[in-house]
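Task 17 of the worksheet. Students: predict the tertiary structure of the chain below and write it out as structure tokens. Keep your answer in the requested format; marks are given for formatting as well as content.
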Amino acid sequence: MATRFADVDVGHDLHTLTLTLSGDEVKRYAVAARMPGGRFMSDDDARKEGLPGQIVPGNLSLALFSRLIAESLPDATLKKLSATFRGLVHPGQPLKIHGVVTEKHCTDEGDRIECDLVLESQEGDRLVTGTATVQFPARR
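Model answer:
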């Protein structure tokens, strides 16, 4: 776990999260986030919308990327996060969330790194890809 800017180099792998979200967890998230839509509630409701089954909200995928950053770089602050949704994420599907440091910059605003992020299926399909900008505390 890297806690200082000096501890991180380009190519540094972030911590890997492996998890499987249950349908109930996805539904609770959607309700808490006030995200209406049957697609997040159950397989039956999602099928009524033309989908193959219940799906994970994109915001939850972003939350998983945020968790990855927080666990991998606990002393840094997430400044920017973006994602491209390339496939459907379904509950009950084993997921792997990981990332790598791609750039490192010392700026007037502080020390920052850029990371590439991936949420993939057990089969290695890249369902969500993203980037993050992370800033470390000012050196004292």
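Marker's comment: Residues 58-72 form the longest helix (15 residues). The domain at 5-21+56-135 is CATH 3.10.129.10 (Thiol Ester Dehydrase; Chain A).
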